[in-house]
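Protocol step 4 of 5: obtain the predicted structure for the target chain.
Materials: sequence only (see below). No template structures provided, no constraints applied. The aim of this step is simply to have a reference model before the mutagenesis design in step 5. Sequence pasted as it appears in the construct record:
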Amino acid sequence: MSSAPEQLSLGVSLKDDATFDNFYAPEGSANGQIIQALNRQVEGTGEQFIYLWGSAGAGLTHLLQASSHYAESRGLAVQYLPLQDVMGFAPDALLDGMEQLDMVCLDGLDAVAGKPEWERALFSLYNALRDTGRLLLVAATGNARSLGIELPDLRSRLMWGAMYQVQGLSDEDKIRALSARARERGMELGEDVATFIVQRVPRDMNQLFCYLHRLDHASLAEQRKLTIPFVKKVLGL
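Step 4 output (structure tokens):
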């Protein structure tokens, strides 16, 4: 497989718990179908290019990092790149050589929309990846038509392949997702406690899982079960 060019050593790390298995997607749901498409892409039986979009907190970053983990597990050379965190780099230098990788995952495309240097560099990357037959996974909070991309050729490239909208979860699904993640961590989180958390904190799933992480550490440190009074104390609710 390909090896990552030296200039791509950006200190970007993946979360260990960003996997397809712990992304809550009920059987038969649109999000479940997206996970199947991402699996097929990595396995080489699906689309070469996939564009994901959805609201903030819908799980776009989780899915891109899960795809990166899965690609690595299959021996692929992959680069996950959160564009919002690398705006200080020169785009041509940053993206140069990425077509040598087996897969590139670009997160937060919104950050570079309307920036001519970035748009030109991304257009060149798309063409190079197409020519070398490599995989590309992109995520943004808007679809390719409404994202504000000013370079027409790049806008057309973004619509190559498959485009999927990641659906946000209902409050009921968030409660189930929170409970499922707690079980994975060996925690007992009753439905009443999960409901209490979801109803009183920001309902972005990333935030909810961060709160769960805090509760896990506090529960272990104090040897306490997750009750509503304990949650109130730890989270300051």
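Step 4 remarks: The longest helix spans residues 205-222. DSSP finds nine helices and five strands in the chain.
Proceed to step 5.
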